[in-house]
Amino acid sequence: MRQIETSLDRLETDHLDLLQHHEILRFDDPDRIFGEDGAMEAFIEAKKAGKLRFIGFTGHKDPRVHLYMLEIAARYRFRFDTVQKPLNVMDAHFRSFAHRVLPRLVEARIGVLGMKTFGGADGIILKNKAIEPIDCLHYSLNLPTSVVITGIDDQKVLDQAFEAVKTFQPMSEEEFPAIVAKTQRVATDGKYELFKTFLPFRYDREASVTIVQRCKVSLHKMQGSGANRWSGTASKDDSARPLRFPQASKIN
Questions:
Q1: Do the domain assignments include residue 194?
Q2: pLDDT tens digits, one per residue of 72-96
Q3: Which of 9, 77, 98, 135 has the greatest number of beta carbons closer than 10 A?
Q4: Which residues face 56 on adjacent strands?
Q5: Residue 50: how many CB atoms within 10 A of its CB?
Q6: Strand partners, 147
Q7: Of 36, 53, 42, whose CA–CA distance to 3 is shortest?
Q8: What is the DSSP string of 21-35?
């Protein structure tokens, strides 16, 4: 709570519109955040005091970690307002947040903040020359997101973002798969999404084994009840799975 107070003082404001738990990367993060004396206690206290309006979390490592965070939140009868995660044309093929997490958020009407549109600050997705920047932006805009986050470091990139918005039209059932197919050959091993595969980001395998099993059991129960038809399996290649969303429209 002291850190929240310090941030408010430095920002010279009495409240924040949105505060998010940053980098939920490991399977033990949700239990630690929601546990006794965990960060969520301070968030909820701050919200009750009128210092926060909305609470969310971010992460870019593995969609199963996000699913587990949502599971733990439900166990504590808490509903997040937002989730920030990678949503880009490479993600559609490898450990896909769009396939595995986004439908759950749309169904629950949780705000979706899509990040890493070009794979990070260095725009690594564009280096393979398989797809143009405008197509990357149009892909992300076509998903049922609340916000598409794209870094802007010069006038050219800003103009590109404006152009993407001005030229965007919701894609047809033929157009959307055509854009996704452009990156299938180069995306299935995750080499252009280093935030998912780079060694320093890897979570503790030993700590994750039991929780992955628990998460799979919970997903199986939800699927059996018809509450969730989306797979929680560990397959890295999502290329064969079509992107479909319940009530595929923008979240207000």
A1: yes
A2: 999 999 999 999 999 988 898 899 9
A3: 98
A4: 20, 82
A5: 9
A6: 113
A7: 42
A8: E----STTHHHHHHS
